[in-house]
Amino acid sequence: MQLKRVVVTGLGALTPIGNNIEEYWNALVNGVSGAAPITHFDASKSKTRFACEVKNFNPTDFIDRKSARKMDKFTQYAMVASDEAIVDSGLDLETINKLRVGVIWGAGIGGLETLQNEVLNYAAGDGTPKFNPFFIPKMIADIAPGHISIKYGFMGPNYTTVSACASSANAMIDALNYIRLGYCDVIVTGGSEAAITIAGVGGFSSMQALSTRNETPETASRPFDASREGFVLGEGAGALVLEEYEYAKARGAKIYAEVIGGGMSSDAYHITAPHPEGIGVIAVMKNCLENSGIKPEDVDHINTHGTSTPLGDVAELKAISAVFGAHAKNININSTKSMTGHLLGAAGAIESIAAILAMEHSIVPPTINHQNFDENINPDLNLTLNKPQKREIKVAMSNTFGFGGHNACVAFKKIDE
Hints:
- The protein is α/β, with parallel strands linked by helices and about 425 residues long.
- It has 13 helices and 14 strands.
- The chain has helices spanning about 20-30, 65-70, 75-90, 110-125, 135-140, 145-150, 165-180, 200-205, 245-250, 280-290, 310-325, 335-340, 345-360, and strands at about 5-15, 35, 50, 100-105, 160, 185-195, 235-245, 255-265, 300-305, 330-335, 365, 390, 395-400, 405-415.
- α3 (about 75-90) crosses α6, α7 crosses α13 (about 345-360) and α10 crosses α11 (about 310-325).
- The chain is globular and about 65 Å long.
- About 60% of the residues are buried.
C-alpha cells in the first residue's frame, strides 16, 4: 500500500525559556539560558540547587481551578501546550470526524510531584493509609492525553509512550505511522514533564548525572564543551498537530513542515550510559534515513540529544561522523538543551519544534556556553557555537535518547507540494 504523507499544522510550547511558541523561538535565536536557582522547593541542602524551571506560570490562567487541582503539573503543562497547538492548527472542532483524531503523548516519568507528596503525607501521619482520591489519576503517565482527548472529544487512539527521554520522539513516530497507514486524519502529539521536585533532583543527583555549577547556573548546560560535567534538569511541554497531507491541504491549513520519517533502535548496552562508540545512535539515524527515503547528503541540520554529559556528547558526535561521513561537516549541528536544559520525556517534542522553526525561519539556534574545545570531538563539525547561523534548511533531524538505551530520531522536510 502507498503510505500517506504527514504534515505539521500546529505547534505549542511551554518551556523554561518561553511560555508559548513565539517566546520560545525568540529565546532560542537569542541564546537565552533558562537555568536559575530552584524555586519549586527548598533546594538549599541539595547537591544541585538550580534547574530550568517554567517561569511565571499560573495554571488557573489556562485551566479552571477545579480541574487544575485534579492534574499533576506535567498534565497542566500538556494541556497548555496542546491548547496552543490546536488553536494554531486552525482545526474546525465542530466539523471534524473526532473518531479519526487521536492523542499520542510522551512522558518519561509522569506525576512525580504527586507521588512524592502523597507518600510524604502518608509518612508524616499515624500509619493510616489516607490518600487523595485523585492520587492515582494525577500520577499515572497516561493521564495527560486522556485529559486532552476528554476536553476536545477526540476519540481516536489515545495513549502515552514511555521510553525515558525518548518518550515524546517515540510518540511522534507512532503518530506519524497511524496517519501514514490511514487509521487517523489528525493526531495531537508531543510530550510533557515536571520532575523538578525533591525526588527528581535528588534522584538524578545521586546518579551524578546533574551539573553542580551552583554559582553560575546559566552557563551549566554546555554541550560539547570540554568542561561539561552533567545535564541541567528542565521541565515543560511541547505539542504538535500532525495531519494527513491531503486532509490538511483540503481545509487550507498552514503547513509548517512534512514529517518524512522516524527511526528507533536500542543500545542494548547499559541502563544509563550510552555505548561509547555510539552503535545504537548510528543505527537509529540510519533507520531514520531509510524510513524517510533520503540520503545522508540530503540532511542540512541536526538538533542533537546533546545533554552536556561527558560520555553522551562524544558518542553522539562520533555516530554523526560515522553515518554522514564527509557530509557531516556541512550539517548545522546544535543542542538547544544548552538553553532549555533537559526536559526528559518532553525533550523530543520541544527539540523537534526547534528544528521545524529553524527550517521555517532559515536560522539555526546556537549551542550556547561553549568555551573550551574537546579534543575528543571532531573539530570539522559545525556545532553552531554561541551564535545563531543563517541557513536554508530543506531537511532537519532531531535525535533523542533515553535511559535504558532507547534511541529515537525524527526527520522533517520543508514542504514540497
